[in-house]
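To illustrate the input format used throughout this study, we show a single complete record. The first block contains the structure-token representation of the backbone; no residue identities are included at this stage. The design step must infer an amino acid for every position from geometry alone.
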């Protein structure tokens, strides 16, 4: 009896990297590299095909990637157990998640490149007021929603971390080129770092405090050390001349190193990559060349893997019953109304024309990958 029970709970054996080929009797689906290649090809083909179809409805590619992740997961195609065991077996999830998170690191670096600290310091009173309302009002509504969610479907989770995770997920904006949204995002990432610090397995508040203070020290050290290095590199890159490969490799290595440090601290590795992007100089050809070399590979190949990785953890079929649908509607309503109403009311009080205030409210309500990242971190940390 004991031996049968033990055998039934064995973890899947690790996969070898490469096979010897079909003629040697090896199935490529049993090995990590060929299976990862098949998964990537399937993901790219499906998401690109959906993007072409959804372009007719004027939908961005990110919508196609989100839908593609859900279709490939247990919600649709994953209802077939044979499909999941063959194409996305549990033993392959570690490789898939690793590739997806490497892509995510560089995506957050590129997102940080869109935020200019100098522009944030010059943000006017109107933009600052709109930014504060855009994060404070939905965050406050998120507190109310989190209390209800924790009392129903998330019993026993860390209360403070859960509250901040839900608040950040509802208040962040996926539109950093707007001045209010950029201020909003910086505040949200700080809150997210706090939430990650609070969600550790060690429940001691001292440990959470050390994690948060170490994260602050990391940001300060990075702000004092890397900008001069970046400026030295940027000064040696001139218009019309190719950027040296050494500089590109050095920046990518710094991004990965920053991710390693924040992960070692206890904050998600993407936070370090984001900070490096924010500190990177925005002027000159160096930033443009760096984006040109990194963006296509990250957004076209690696980033769709993150949506599939998320889709494999999501099963919309589990939303059953009046309570589940009611809570879903509550979260959607809270997320949208908090952003739109808060932004519109403050915009009107700052004498912004009504049409522009409404347009700004809907722009500030833009959701995307960043919200999915927040929710996935919460899920991985067993907070939601």
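Output of the design step:
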């Amino acid at each position: 009896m004991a031996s049968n029970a033990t055998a039934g709970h064995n973890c899947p054996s690790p996969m070898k990297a490469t096979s010897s080929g079909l003629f040697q009797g090896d199935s490529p689906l049993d090995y990590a590299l060929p299976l990862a290649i098949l998964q990537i090809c399937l993901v790219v083909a499906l998401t690109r095909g959906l993007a072409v179809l959804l372009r007719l409805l004027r939908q961005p590619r990110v919508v196609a990637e989100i839908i593609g992740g859900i279709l490939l997961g247990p919600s649709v195609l994953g209802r077939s157990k044979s499909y999941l065991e063959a194409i996305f077996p549990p033993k392959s999830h570690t490789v898939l998640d690793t590739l997806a998170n490497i892509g995510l690191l560089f995506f957050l670096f590129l997102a940080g490149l869109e935020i200019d600290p100098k522009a944030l310091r010059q943000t006017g009173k109107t933009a600052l007021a709109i930014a504060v309302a855009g994060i404070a009002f939905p965050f406050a509504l998120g507190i109310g929603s989190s209390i209800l969610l924790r009392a129903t479907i998330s019993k026993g989770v860390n209360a403070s971390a859960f509250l901040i995770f839900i608040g950040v997920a509802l208040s962040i904006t996926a539109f950093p080129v707007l001045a209010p949204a950029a201020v909003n995002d910086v505040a949200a990432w700080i809150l997210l770092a706090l939430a990650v610090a609070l969600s550790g397995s060690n429940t001691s508040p001292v440990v959470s405090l050390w994690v948060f203070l170490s994260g602050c020290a990391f940001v300060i050290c990075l702000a004092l050390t890397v900008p001069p290095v970046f400026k030295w590199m940027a000064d040696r890159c001139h218009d019309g001349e190719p950027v040296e490969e050494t500089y590109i490799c050095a920046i990518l290595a710094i991004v990965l190193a920053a991710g390693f440090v924040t992960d070692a601290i206890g904050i998600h590795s993407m936070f370090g990559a984001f900070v490096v992007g924010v500190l990177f100089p925005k002027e000159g050809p160096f930033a443009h060349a760096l984006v040109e070399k990194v963006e296509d590979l990250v957004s076209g190949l690696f980033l769709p893997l993150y949506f599939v990785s998320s889709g494999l953890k999501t099963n919309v079929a589990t939303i059953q019953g009046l309570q589940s649908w009611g809570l879903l509607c509550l979260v959607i309503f809270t997320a949208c109304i908090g952003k739109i109403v808060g932004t519109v009311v403050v915009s009107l009080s700052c004498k912004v024309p009504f049409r522009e205030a409404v347009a700004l409210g809907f722009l500030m309500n833009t959701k995307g990958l960043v919200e999915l990242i927040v929710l996935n971190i919460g899920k991985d940390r067993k907070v939601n």
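Structural context for interpreting the output: DSSP finds 16 helices and no strands in the chain. The CA atoms of residues 144 and 337 lie 14 Å apart.
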